Amino acid sequence: MSVFLILQYRWTAVRAEDDLDIDGAVDEDLGKSRDASRTDDEVVHREEEAIQLDGLNAAQIKEIREKSEKHAFQAEVNRMMKLIINSLYKNKEIFLRELISNASDALDKIRLMSLTDDAALGDMEELTVKIKADKANNLLHITDTGVGMTKEDLVRNLGTIAKSGTSEFLTQMTESQGEDQSSSELIGQFGVGFYSAFLVADKVIVTSKSNNGTQHIWESDSNEFSIVEDPRGNTLGRGTTITLVMKEEASDFLELETIKNLVRKYSQFINFPIYVWSSKTETIEEPIDEEAEAEKTKEGDVEEDEVDVEEEEEDKDKPKTKKVEKTVWDWELMNDIKPIWQRQAKEVEEDEYKAFYKTFSREPLGYIHFTAEGEVTFKSILFVPATAPRGLFDEYGTKKNDFIKLFVRRVFITDDFHDMMPKYLNFVRGVVDSDDLPLNVSRETLQQHKLLKVIRKKLVRKTLDMIKKIAEEHYNEKFWKEFGTNIKLGVIEDHSNRTRLAKLLRFQSSHSEGLTSLEQYVERMKEKQDKIYFMSGTSKKEAEASPFVERLLKKGYEVVYLTEPVDEYCVQALPEFDGKRFQNVAKEGVKFDESEKAKETRETLEKEYEPLTTWMKEKALKDMIEKAVLSQRLTRSPCALVASQYGWSGNMERIMKSQAYQTGKDISTNLNYFFIYDPDDQTSSDLAVVLFETATLRSGFQLADTKAYGDRIERMLRLSMNVDVDEKVEEEVEEEPEEEQAEEEEGAEKDVEEIKDEEEEVDQVFIFQHGQTVHCYICTTFTSGVTVSFGVYVKTLSVCFCSQSTKIEL
Predict the structure, then answer these.
(1) What pLDDT band is residue 623 in, cutting at 50, 70 and 90?
(2) Residue 389 in this model has a pLDDT that exceeds 60
(3) CB environment 129-143: b (16+ within 10 A), e (fewer)
(4) Which CATH fold would you assign to the domain 69-274?
(5) Which residues are registered as beta bridge partners of 429?
(6) Region 596-720: CATH code
C-alpha cells in the first residue's frame, strides 16, 4: 500500500497592518546573524544585499513581507521534514543531481506540451539548465526554461511531501492523449528530491513563471514557507530559478570545479544542455598607449638602436599592441557527451563506442550494446578494458564494484554496488540505464533486490557472450593474460554459468608451446581415452619434469599443465567437460589399456615384489605412506609419491601449507629399477627413507624435516666413501708463509706438466677429497698415493682399483 505524507499548513493571508510582529519576523527569517553583536540595521543591510543580487531591491523586499502568504508546517510534519533532510540521503552532494533532474523534468514537460500546442514555447524555444555560483553572497542559482509553476503548483508541489508534480503530469498526459509513459523522459517519481536542497541551504527561494499564470516567489527555511507574487513582474519569461542561501559548512559547493565535477558525475547524460557560469584565462592583444609608452621610455633613459628607415615607416602603419592575460566569464557546456546507449546498436558507429569508452578509460578490448526487456527493461553498454585495473584482486570479494554505472532516465544514481555484477567480473565497465527501475525515494539504494538479480543475470550472460566474441589472437595474447584468473575464479564461484565459463578457459599443455582450450584438447584426444589428464606445478618446466607424466607422454597422451595456484581449484570445481572427466595424474586412478598378457605379467610382478612393498609399508616407511605399489606410470624415475584420489596433490599441499591436514600417500616404485634390501639392516632402512624423501620432492611435495633429509644424504655419502659416519671434519690448517707456499705451488705445476706429457689423454671422472687423500668417485677406493691441490688436473701413474679411469679431476 502506497502512503503519501501531505504537509498540513495553516493558510493565513498576512498584511502589514494585521501583523503586529512583522519586524521581528523579518529579523528572524531573513536576517539571522551569525554574530550576536551586530545591530538590527546591519542585519537588514546584509539581507538587502543578498536579495538585491537576486533582482529585488529594498522596497520590493518590504512589499514581499507585506503581501506574502505565510504557511506554517504542523509540528509532526516539521519533524518529518527534518527526517527527510537529515536521514533520507546518504551524502549532501546529491542535492545538485536532484535539482537538475527536476529542471530536466520541467523542460521535458514543456517539450511534450509543445508537440500539441505550437504556442507553448513562445519566444523561448531554447530549453536549457544554467547554474551560477555567487561566492561573494553565498548563493547558488539553478535556472531552467521549463514549464514553470503557477501559485497553485508551488503550494501543491513544494508544500507537500511525496507529492510529485511529475507523476501527476504523466497521469494527465496519459489520460488526455493516451500516451505511453515509457515514451516520455520524465525523471521525478516521489516528490521529495526538491527537499534535498536543505542539505546544503539554510533557505531556499524559488522564483517561477508558468504560461498559465504570473510570476511568483516561494521561500522557505524548512520550518515554514511563504508565497508572494513577484513585484518585479515577469523577469523569467518562462521557467524556474532556484536560489540556495548556502550553509556555512556547505561553501565548498560554490567552488566552480566542485560544481562541474558533480554535473559531470550525475547529470552528464541529461537530454538538455547544462551550462555553468565559468571563467577562463585568455591571452588577447591590446593596443599600447603610445604617449604612456613614450613617457616611460624617457624616464628610463633607454638608448635607441639605429633602424632602417623603410622598416620604421612600415611600423608606423601598424598599430602597436601587447599580449595580456584576462579572465573571461561565459556559459560552459557540461554535457556534450550523448548517451549512445539510448540509440539502436545498428545506428552507432564503432568510433563512437571507442570515443564513449574513453570517458571511462583507454581503448576497449571488446564491447556489447543491448536492450533487455521482460520483468525489467533497461539499456546497457558493457566494455572489456584492454588492461586490468590496478589492484584488481585487492580486497577481492569485499571491495564494491564501481565500474558499472546505474542510471535512471540518464540521471546517474550510483556505482556503489555489491550485487550488480559478480566479483569475478569486477573488471567489466559500462552503464545500465532503466526507465522503470524501482528505486527508493533517495535513488541511492535499489528497493527490490529481486529485480537487481534479474539485471545481474542478464548482464553476466551478455558479458560472457562479449568475451566469447573476442578474436582468438586477441583473446590468448591480451584478454587471457590480463583476466584469465578472473575466468577461473568464475568457474569456482558461478555454478549457473560454469559450462559457459569452461569454454573460455585456456591452459598450457604438452601439445604445443601456446595456450589450448578444453574444446581443442577434447578434439585431439586418443581413441578410447575417457579422461582429461592434467598435471599441476609451479611452472610448465616443473610439470614436464614430473615423473607422473613420463609414461603418458611416452604413449602419446596430451597432458594439460596447471601452473597457477587457482588452476587446481578451478578443475576441482569443474566435474567434467563435454562428457570427459578430469584426472590428476599425480593421484591414483590413472589406468592404461593393457592386453591380457600385459595384465598377467603385471600381476606376476606384483606377487614377486610383494615382500619389498610390504617391508616398505610396514617397516622402512611406516607411518609415512598408506601403501607401496608397483607403478604403471613411471619410465625413468625409480619411484614417485602418489596422492589418494581425494587427497591433496603436491602442488595443492604447497598452496595450503598445512601439514596438519595432510592425507596419506602411496609410494609407487618402478619395476625397471634394482632394489636390494636387508630387512634387518639399518642402512637399508635409511636408504628406503632417502628414496621416499627423494620421491617426495620429485612428486612436488614438501619435506617436513629438510635437516633430517640433509643429514641422511650426508651419511649416505660418508658410507659410500668408506668414511666413518662419526668422524669429525678436521680443523682448518693455518696457511703457510707466502714464500714457501709459492715455491710448493710452482713445483706442483712443474710435476703436473711432466705427468701430462707422459700419458695419453683419457676420460675424466669427478673425485672427492678427504684430507690429503684422493678418492675415486666410481669405486670410492684410494688411488695410488696422489696428493694434489684443488682445481689441478692430475693423471695417476697407476690405474684406479676399479679400472675405470686413469685420470682424476678435483
Answers:
(1) confident
(2) yes
(3) bbbbbbeebbbbbbb
(4) Heat Shock Protein 90 (3.30.565)
(5) 383
(6) 1.20.120.790
